[in-house]
Amino acid sequence: MTQTQSPALPGGPRVAVEFRALGPVQAVIAGRPVDLGAPKQRTLLALLVSQAGQPVTVDVMMEALWAGHPPPSAMTSLQAYVANLRKLLEPDRAPRRPATVLRTCTQGYLLDVDATDVDARRFVEHAKAGWQARGQEDPQRALSESEAALALWRGQAYQEVAAVPCVVPEVARLQELRLSVVEMRCAALLDLGAHEMAAAELEAFMKANPLREYGCELLSLALYRAGRQADALEVLQTMQIRLTEELGVDPRMALQHLRRKILNQAPSLDRRPTPIPARPAPAGSGGSAALPRAGAAGPPPAPDADREVFVGREAALRQLTEALASAQAGRGRVVTVSGEPGAGKTSLLRRFAEPTGVPVLWGTCTEHVTAPSLWVWEQVLRAAATAFPHHPVPRPVSELLDGDSQRTADGTEPPGAALRRFEAIVQYLTGLSRTEPLVVMLDQLHRADRGSLRLLAHLAESVPASRLLLVVSYRSHEAPVLAETLAALARGEMTRLELGGLTPQDTQALASAILRREVSSLTAKGLCARTDGNPFFLREMIGLLTDDQRLDDPHAAPVPVLVREVVLGGIARLPRPAVEVLSVAAVVGRHFDIAVVAGGVPVGIDEALAALDTAIAAGLIVEDQRRLGWFRFTHALVAEVLYETTGRLRRARLHRWIGAAADRAGTTDRAAERAARTARHMLPVPEGDPAAETRASMSIGG
Question: Please, what's the largest Cα pairwise distance for the chain?
Fold first, then answer.
């Protein structure tokens, strides 16, 4: 490992102390490792290195060394550890001369950042250089930088103190960065033609990190280029099922585009030699930076000739365009886009962003991993720093991006620190929009952490007097968790867009484009009726219309596998009583009377209503506003999946019981009469024809 020398310190000789913290802590002086002594002494040094440049109080040290139960001699031992470390780190320091590496400060002790070289900092520098090389289409340098970065790792970062509260955020940041560097290395291998090597490494990587979408994209591409087309498609299918366990959570567009291109064996998937361009001109010689559309959440989507088929939403696009025009005129706007899962909120935002001609800063809230506070804003701010390289980044913003936010010894922020950071971010973003409009998009806001929501509300106060267009999207049934934030956004001039299902005309256009043949209006109406125009359900259903028979009768097609997995995944998260009630309700039909359904489950009417409350909160059913005690499934496909997962014998018994219950109720409601009549006179269904049995069931209850 190359020895890195520290700068000269005032009043003293040049100091070279290298710390290795990406694994068990080590100290290297003059090129030689130093024996750090007893385990607690090593732990103390690891804690100090993790907080280099920041004071560490005695209380935090006591907590880290003795887990909150220090012995009476703890202070004496701590002072001895500090004295020993000072001797080890500055062996040539003269007696009575102040320490320059491990210094005493009013709050406790501090490891001087200017007197040290920490491998964690060098890891970040290599990572940034690698990403820069990727952006300059220099895969060889990107590979070298990524390998140099990964070579610094010997185990868990700050291993001895990884669980100490003030160290946990830094450990998480470095680990996330490490995963991104692994992906960058494999991307460089692909660029250089090493497909088999990249595939082998990515297979192991994805087994350990199954939710990394960019890793999945790289693995699929590597397998395809290695002649394993079936394996490439299987990887994409597995990822899609995994991501859609939450109703309507689609993979990123790059994965969907890649699947279509693999199926079509698109020539653009074949490797082309990547020329290594000349190094960019020095700063000040002109030029501009490309704007990453997706912020820093991952590499921006590559240009794609096989663009996603997008239909409809003309009114929503028009309102977004009008809001942008208002921002251009100096009257910033806030736009909220809501809809059920799978309604196409993200697709709408991407469609709007492409032709705007103005910078678009994109942030997406994560779902499957716990992200640090303000993670979605870090994506936005990194994109801003890239898009406006000549605009100075305020210190609080750069500290947030570098993970150097000021914290007290117990891991919390000093009073007022969050407000000062919020003010700096607001001034930075509004300043960038001073001469030209700027679009900030926050996707999947219902997943945002509390700090991100507070910053959003704070920024919204300054939007009307700026050229900012602030666009956020969220799931409609998650609105209650955003009530406070939405109220804050509504205080200014806000446009609300609620996305419903696609119309039969839009469905016809979508099906015709995907199938590459003219689809009749009758087929489109059938598709629309079965899916309620939900774009996610529609796309999956259209993919099954492979012959003329299914085109003529979309109801004959089975429920798509992904739709089934999505529905069952949502059902599995409900309490068992709710699952029981919904299973019986699905036999009644899409519309059902809870008084009838409650008799088919071993609970009373009150318990059945309580169970339905959880299903309503999950967005699976809604209450009928015209008929007291009646409910309906939000999608016929949800009822259909539940119906098909109920045993045939139990379905037959429930049919008879529901018919008798409706008769006993003596109701005059037409739907209930139809349910009773169908249950009493239900014709036999051909054995082995679940679609016919499903259609018979779905008629019950209207």
Answer: 102
Which distant-in-sequence residues (6+ apart) come within 8 Å of 640 by Cβ?
Answer: 559, 586, 694, 698
Give 57's contacts (C-beta < 8 A, 6+ positions apart). Answer: 107, 108, 408, 409, 410
pLDDT at 367: 66
Low-confidence ranges of the chain (pLDDT < 50): 1-15, 247, 273-307, 408-411, 667-672, 674-702
Compute the distance between CA of residue 180 and CA of residue 131 in angstroms, rounded to an integer: 10
3-state secondary structure of 537: helix
pLDDT, residue 217, reads: 92
CA gap 601, 574 in Å, rounded: 16
CA dist list (Å): 619 to 26, 341, 365, 531, 532: 53, 9, 20, 15, 14
In SS3 terms, 50-117 reads as HCCCCCEEHHHHHHHHHCCCCCCCHHHHHHHHHHHHHHHHCCCCCCCCCCCCEEEECCEEEECHHHEE
Helix or strand holding residue 381 (H, E)? helix 375-387
Look at residue 438 in the predicted model and tell me its pLDDT.
Answer: 92
* Sole residue written with tokens 């605009």: 391
Query: What is the Cα–Cα distance from 430 to 146, expressed in whole angstroms?
Result: 35
- In the DSSP assignment, the letter for residue 655 is H
Please provide the DSSP assignment of 208-276 as one string.
Answer: H-TT-HHHHHHHHHHHHHTT-HHHHHHHHHHHHHHHTTSTT-PPPHHHHHHHHHHHTT-GGGS------
Q: How far is CA 292 from CA 275, 286, 296, 302, 345, in A?
A: 21, 19, 8, 10, 20
Tokens of 264: 């079509």
**Alpha-carbon dihedral of residues 135, 137, 138, 144, nearest 10 degrees?**
50
pLDDT of residue 294: 33
Q: Give the integer Cα–Cα distance in Å for 396 and 425.
A: 8
* Backbone Cα Rg of the chain: 30
Question: Helix %, strand %, coil % for the chain, to 5?
Answer: 55, 10, 35
Ordered alpha helix ranges (H), 330-369: 345-353
Give the H/E segment covering residue 660.
Answer: helix 648-665
DSSP 3-state assignment of 540? Answer: helix
**d(C-alpha 362, C-alpha 343), whole Å:** 19
Output the pLDDT for position 496: 93
Q: Which amino acid is at 421?
A: R
What is the rounded CA–CA span in Å between residue 469 and residue 330? Answer: 10
Tell me how many degrees the CA angle 129-132-134 measures, rounded to the nearest 5.
115
Q: Which two tokens stand for residue 494?
A: 């806000």
Strands 438-443 and 360-364: what pairing? parallel
pTM value is 0.54
Contact (CB, 8 A) for 443 and 363: yes
Distance, CA of 3 to CA of 506 (rounded, Å): 64
Count the residues in the chain.
Answer: 702
Q: What is the pLDDT of residue 678?
A: 42
* Structure-derived torsion over alpha carbons of residues 279, 388, 348, 441, reported in degrees to the nearest 10: 130
Assess contact for 222 and 229: CB atoms under 8 A.
Answer: no
Name the pairing type of β-strands 468-475 and 438-443.
parallel
Q: Quote the pLDDT of residue 326.
A: 92
Residue 300: count of CB within 10 angstroms of its CB:
18
For residue 495, what are the CA distances in angstroms to 364, 437, 445?
20, 18, 16
